[in-house]
Design brief:
By secondary structure, the chain is an alpha/beta fold. About 1% of the residues have low confidence. Bound molecules: pyridoxal-5'-phosphate.
């Protein structure tokens, strides 16, 4: 018996979960469709069709490298952000030995490899910014890689990577890695990753396809591969490359780079309206990642993260979905779990508040009417839950 057909997917109104996955940009869809309809050829082959596929791949490498001021030969295509992060941590420790170090708010794609290798974890302050003094205390020559994300997937807080690099360079020769997965839509990449040796990206966070990412090697770094086989990607990541996926990711990045300033300004205004009105409409709303003065300038434009007193996230998400609003409690990977997120715990958010967290993440397709809907549905749901408790 055949399984039931999956639901038809379309860009949804009320979608405020862009940090989990954002819809593909038209340029990325066009690139993918064109290549999927073209004759299939393996880019490592020797004949003309293989050479043509390789040219497409090389063009994608050039476009991606240009965003990071990197050498195109040092763009390593991966099957997403998780794999890029794993390659950075395991790859450097495999090549150089020693221990890895990361911040306590990293995505599990960094945190779990670091913990697996017996590495060190550095805390953050209440705003979710890495503690540079604690970082300095934990550094010595045995640390082979330091990984600090550019923008956090829950709080949206941007980390001071130039300062991190200065602290590290003063004390040891560790490789510097950043997980820039959540930053690509919002920040100029060449500027913000200038001090880094390795940068991870994931296409589905900026309008490219899911299951496609890259590790960009900005300065020559020895890496032991995590995936062994045919020796593709200059022996650093085996497996036939996803030519259509790479071209589609590059098209999404080129479009993102071109539209970023206007998109950031537009989305930031929407986000500020959303958070401002929720905070004036409801009592007991705590915004994460802001200073005591409520300044949001160090958060990426699409990020709104709130904790509601006296509310349970799971029940809230249920009511929001019933009202046509799609959001999440913590990061996409942690949502559904009962435990409050490790990010909020590291920021010192008390457990009873952290269980009422809501991540509203905006993106390139977010409109004023998505915000209108959120402002109608969220206060009603919060009041209903508070009334019920
Ligand atoms: N790093 C961060 C900061 C993320 O937010 C995510 C996804 O949520 C990942 C890594 C993992 O990327 P991918 O979903 O492409 O494996």
């Amino acid at each position: 018996m055949s399984s039931p057909a999956p639901p038809a997917l379309s860009v949804q109104s009320g979608y405020l979960d862009h940090a989990a996955s954002t819809p593909m940009r038209p340029e990325a869809v066009a690139a993918m469709v064109e290549l999927m309809a073209a004759p299939a050829a393996n880019p490592t082959g020797a004949h003309k069709l293989a050479r043509d596929a390789r040219k497409v791949l090389d063009r994608a490498r050039q476009d991606i490298a240009a965003s990071f001021d990197a050498d195109p030969g040092n763009v390593i295509f991966t099957g997403g952000g998780t794999e890029a992060d794993n390659l950075a941590i395991f790859g450097v420790v495999g090549a150089r030995g020693g221990v890895p170090l990361c911040s306590a708010i990293e995505h599990h794609a960094v945190l779990h490899p670091v913990e697996h290798l017996g590495g060190r974890v550095v805390g953050v302050d209440a705003r979710g910014v890495i503690d540079l003094d604690a970082l300095a205390d934990q550094l010595d020559e045995s640390v082979s890689i330091v990984s600090v994300m550019l923008a956090n997937n829950e709080s949206g807080v941007v980390q001071p990577l130039a300062d991190v690099a200065s602290v590290v360079r003063e004390q040891c020769t560790a490789v510097l890695h950043t997980d820039a997965v959540q930053a690509v839509s919002w920040l100029d990449l060449a500027t913000h990753t200038a001090a880094m040796d390795l940068v991870s990206i994931s296409a589905h966070k900026f309008g490219g396809p899911q299951g496609m990412g890259a590790l960009i090697v900005r300065s020559e770094t020895d890496l032991v591969p995590v995936i062994l086989g045919g020796g593709q990607e200059r022996e650093r990541r085996s497996g036939t490359q996803n030519v259509a996926g790479a071209a589609s990711m590059a098209a999404a990045l080129v479009a993102t780079d071109a539209e970023r300033p206007a998109m950031v300004a537009r989305v930031e205004a929407l986000r500020n309206r959303l958070v401002g009105e929720l905070k004036s409409e409801l009592d007991g709303v705590h915004e994460s990642g802001v200073g005591p003065d409520g300044d949001r300038s160090h958060k990426v434009a699409g990020s709104a993260h709130l904790c509601f007193e006296g509310v349970d996230s799971e029940a809230l998400l249920f009511l929001l979905e019933r009202g046509g609003l799609f959001a999440s409690a913590a990061s996409s990977c942690a949502s559904g779990a009962q435990e409050p997120s490790h990010v909020l715990a590291a920021m010192g958010v008390p457990r009873d508040l952290a269980v009422g967290s809501l991540r509203l993440s905006l993106g390139a397709t977010t409109t004023e009417s998505d915000i209108d809907l959120a402002l109608e549905v969220i206060p009603a749901a919060v009041r209903q839950l508070r009334g019920a408790s």
